[in-house]
Amino acid sequence: MRIAVITAGLSEPSSTRLLADRLEKATTEALHERGAAVETTTIEVRTLAHDVVDLLLTRVASPELSLARTNVQDADALIIVTPTFSMSYSGLFKSFIDVLEEGSLAGMPVLLAATGGTARHSMVLDTSLRPLLSYLKALTLPTAVYASAEDWGSPGLDVRIERAGRELADLLIALPSRHRSDPFDTTSSGFVDFESLLGES
């Protein structure tokens, strides 16, 4: 099983990367407990910032950005962690999501997480991140993890991380290979076009 970790922290080191690493470890350990082999790849969006802008302006992707996009598309699941700005995800994170191929996240199990200065920004998970990934047809996990500055070192954060890792592992075991087709592909199994629906009425 392949897991791609997308971390959009802007500093080095960053609490965003720390949370991403802990979620990756929790998921990997949960999969190992279930007898599954797992391969993980971490994508530091910060290091691709110029490449993302160049692609948006020129439609030409650098080799590094092309590899990152392939790692996301070929993954069986994603762990996404972004810092919070003005009650939303970071602009750099959104720009990276914007350059992914259309339909590449359809049916993808995704563990959502975010970091922020205070707990009052925790709603970013359900007001910004979850709607974005749902729009892209991804399968977001019930448990999302938010870590504020005061959360680090608290047992509560440890519990949320472990729970989220177990949920992702359980879903991957239940759905070992996701359906990678374009959600707008009319040839997909089970698709019924509008004309056919009218004919049945």
Can you walk me through this structure?
The protein has 201 residues and is an alpha/beta fold. It has one domain: Rossmann fold. It is built from seven helices and seven strands, in the order βαβααββαβαββαα. The protein has helices at residues 15-33, 49-58, 63-73, 91-98, 124-135, 155-174, 194-200, and strands at 2-7, 39-44, 77-85, 88-89, 109-116, 139-140, 145-148. Strand 5 (109-116), helix 5 and strand 6 (139-140) form a beta-alpha-beta unit. Helix 1 (15-33) crosses helix 6. It starts with a strand and ends with a helix.
Summary tags:
single chain; 201 residues; alpha/beta; Rossmann fold; seven-stranded mixed beta sheet; 43% helix
Would you spell out the secondary-structure blueprint of this structure?
Layout: E1 2-7, H1 15-33, E2 39-44, H2 49-58, H3 63-73, E3 77-85, E4 88-89, H4 91-98, E5 109-116, H5 124-135, E6 139-140, E7 145-148, H6 155-174, H7 194-200
Parallel strand pairs: 1-2, 1-3, 3-5, 5-6, 5-7
Antiparallel strand pairs: 3-4
Q: In brief, what are we looking at here?
A:
The protein is α/β, with parallel strands linked by helices. It has seven helices and seven strands.
